[in-house]
Design a protein that fits this description.
The chain is α/β, with parallel strands linked by helices. The protein contains eight helices and seven strands. Strands 1, 2, 3, 4, 5, 6 and 7 form a seven-stranded mixed β-sheet that branches. Helix 7 links the parallel strand 4 and strand 5.
């Protein structure tokens, strides 16, 4: 059974997998429609880097328009998330391989990682939307660590281009809301490993 997300406080932490942003923002718009209170957080690179997929200022603006809240973009602004127990659940979407590896090894040197550390101290669920070219390479061990870490859940994921990039895997973002609902009930949405992601 899906949890009622109305009035739930949900942190949305965005890192630098720019190629996934369009799908991520589409699903965030749907999530906002559930009545949840969304709080955007951007990593340093996500908040300051333009790419061929768009300008960082436009993404910051879009996040604020969807959530109605100015994004958190600094470590000092992210630190109070823990003491204030601000979120019922935190989602890192997309979660790059860099962020994934640091999360698995207890490093908190960006606003997103500080938000994750601060949130997890309260024994509340954190959801990971994987997006990395080395999921089946160097980062596989870190995925294993996090899959076996209390209070961490994954949006089901699969290979996005198994011919050209056989080690690359990304989250099936269409499962965002269902994953959140299950994680709030302390359950991992299954199957967590899916077939190739739809284009």
């Amino acid at each position: 059974m899906s949890a009622d997300l109305s009035n739930k406080n949900i942190g949305i932490a965005i890192t630098g997998s720019y190629c996934t942003y369009e799908k991520v923002f589409q699903e965030l718009q749907k999530l906002a429609g559930t009545g949840a209170n969304l709080y955007p957080i951007f990593s340093d690179h996500a908040a300051s880097t333009d790419s061929r997929f768009g300008k960082c200022a436009d993404f910051l603006k879009r996040a604020e328009e969807i959530t109605g809240k100015k994004p958190i973009t600094t470590i000092p602004d992210a630190e109070p998330i823990g003491p204030g127990a601000l979120f019922d659940i935190l989602v890192i979407a997309p979660c790059t391989g860099n962020t994934l590896s640091k999360l698995a090894n207890g490093i908190s040197d960006t606003p997103v990682l500080m938000a994750a550390k601060a949130h997890l101290r309260n024994n509340r669920p954190l959801v990971v939307a994987l997006s990395t070219n080395d999921a089946l390479g160097m980062n596989l061990k870190n995925i294993g660590i996090l899959l076996n870490t209390k209070n961490i859940y994954f949006i089901p994921f699969g290979q996005d281009n198994y011919k050209a990039k056989p080690n690359s895997m990304i989250a099936h973002m269409e499962f965002l809301t269902d994953t959140i609902s299950q994680a709030l009930n302390s359950c991992q949405l299954q199957p967590v490993i899916q077939g190739p992601c739809p284009k």
